[in-house]
Design brief:
With 220 residues, the chain is an alpha/beta fold. 42% of the residues lie in helices and 13% in strands. The chain starts with a helix and ends with a helix.
Length: 220
């Protein structure tokens, strides 16, 4: 709603209109008194902008209530958002099945990517949930499948820089010992370093309508 250029390009409003006013007029026309926005950072940020606009321009005739629902669990100051724990638990169960592929090859690398542009919460929470399940699993010694080979050997999140060379050496030793390496990778991991390098080289950093780095285009 605050990116006028994008809203015009997508046909949400005309050249001489503002998205916030168009949205406000539609709500008033439909006789909406309360609007609940359910979502994460972007959704609730826009909800706050709309609420402020309605209060200042239309005497607060429409009440906007933002409800934090995001598996990133990054809506401050909410301690836990709807869906975050469910996503972590289900992600752990999913990986529990995927990691069985570790026996399909003498040397297997499994990358388990989790959602999280700027927040590594889901990646870390999923890893925690999986390791709790792993601790309750029994293994038969004659088989190559072990707790060590099914463990998580690296967790990479946006909040912490990754030394690829050092990690490579460390994980190679684990591969040599167990024949398998499992990495939990947050989708935003390494993005800050990539953006800094692109900007230093004078390259344009692709961004979406909210101003976020377009992860699909820089391919971290």
């Amino acid at each position: 709603l605050t990116n006028v250029k994008d809203c015009i390009a997508r046909g949400f409003c005309g050249e001489n209109e503002t998205p916030l006013e168009v949205a406000s007029q539609q709500l008033l026309k439909d006789k909406i008194n309360v609007i609940h926005t359910i979502g994460g950072d972007d959704t609730n940020t826009q909800a706050a902008k709309l609420s402020k606009y309605l209060l200042e321009k239309h005497n607060g005739k429409v009440c906007v209530v933002g409800m934090p629902k995001t598996i990133d669990n990054d809506v401050y100051p909410i301690k836990q958002t709807f869906g975050a724990n469910t996503a972590a638990v289900q992600g752990a169960i999913f990986f529990e099945n995927v990691v069985s592929e570790s026996t399909a090859n003498p040397r297997m690398l499994i990358l388990h990517e989790c959602m999280g542009r700027d927040s590594g919460y889901l990646t870390a929470a999923t890893a925690k949930a999986y390791r709790e399940r792993l601790a309750k699993t029994s293994f038969l010694t004659p088989f190559t499948d072990t707790a060590e080979s099914r463990d998580i050997h690296a967790v990479w999140i946006p909040e912490l820089p990754v030394d690829i060379e050092a990690e490579g050496a460390r994980l190679k030793a684990i591969m040599d010992a167990n024949g398998n390496v499992n990495v939990f990778l947050c989708e935003g991991s390494g993005v800050k370093e990539i953006v800094a390098e692109m900007e230093a080289n004078g390259e344009e950093v692709p961004r979406d309508a909210f101003g976020h780095v377009a992860l699909a285009k820089i391919n971290p």
